[in-house]
Protein 1
Amino acid sequence: MDKKIERKSRKLEMLLWSIALPGFGQLLNRKFVKGVLLVVLEFAVNVFGNLNQAIVLSFHGEIQEAIQQTNYLWFMFYPCLYLFAIWDAYKDTGGGQKPFAYLPFVFAAYIGTVGVAFSPVLKIFGYLIGPVWLPIISIPIGLIIGALIRWILIKCYTSEDAR
């Protein structure tokens, strides 16, 4: 039982470090080239997309200013980079072995990117959500859509096997 808990703990550790900063999970998994590349890419997208400035402004409720400060041509890359780093670190630790386990991560990246694209104009209940909060809200939606598609595919394939 201790080995099973240890493996689960390690997978969770990689997920959490990758959420903290893309590339950290890879570095902890001793995938140094991939880890450094992801950290450098995260840094580049963050700096050129003005992501930190957008985060600070968004946390202060200055959504319109956050929108004006955001370089969307760079920021569009962030959800895919972020979720790929999380998935990759998890997978390198032995996670994601079940069929179609990648789908929630992939759809979270897709829908998160759509959230970035619509963040300057989309209002929810009359409120402009902005470049930080709309992608954050979009990611769980993408996870749910990906999990649902995964479930459907598993049902389809298992019913084919039963025939």
Note: The longest strand covers residues 123-124.
Protein 2
Amino acid sequence: MNATRIGLDIAKQVFQVHGVDELGKVVLRKTLKRDQVTTFFANVPVCLIGLEAGGGSHYWARELTRLGHEVKLMAQPFQGDFMSKMALFFNHRINIFCYEHRI
């Protein structure tokens, strides 16, 4: 796996990982539990990781930066009543992040 850009959707217990290579080809789609995240990223080659800015994202940004990764925080979309819509919107934004940002 040679992911150069990874989008990480964080939640309370289950995290979604989406990675693409330098050509934009999907090379990684994985679901991780909270206690697996640090171990997983310790074994991934250094890359650019995108996170949605929020409560836990700063903690994870620090942890991933300690492992040598470059972390970019993306601003949250406006808060609304339809959380499922926001989750779908964020998954779309992770994909955009992975395809648009080039190292």
Note: DSSP finds three helices and five strands in the chain.
Protein 3
Amino acid sequence: MPSDPTTYLVAGLVLLVVLYLCFHEARAQVMQKRLLETGDLARATVVSARQTGSWVANNPVLAMTLRVSEDGHPDRELQAEKVVPVMASGLFMPGAVIRLRIDPTDPNNFVFDEPWASK
């Protein structure tokens, strides 16, 4: 059994990082579920989309510009980077229309409200 304090320090730091990542992922899932249930429904037309070169769990991160149409609000453009399922990434062509749920307290925060989006 190692008794070197450095070993315990490294093990403690690794544990903290793992706990942080688990907490962050769980929080993101709760936020997504909350937005799907309570977010304002909107339609977004894809203006542009491109892969950033980053991948998360074998899904590409897309940098996108969307023209958002929301009842009671003027149309606006929104830029975001989102992880998109690899099978849905081809849907992000200019002119495509995608359903969103927008956070009423932060209009730049949204989730996709589509059958292919993880729920």
Note: Strands lie at 40-56, 59-69, 76-83, 97-103, 106-112.
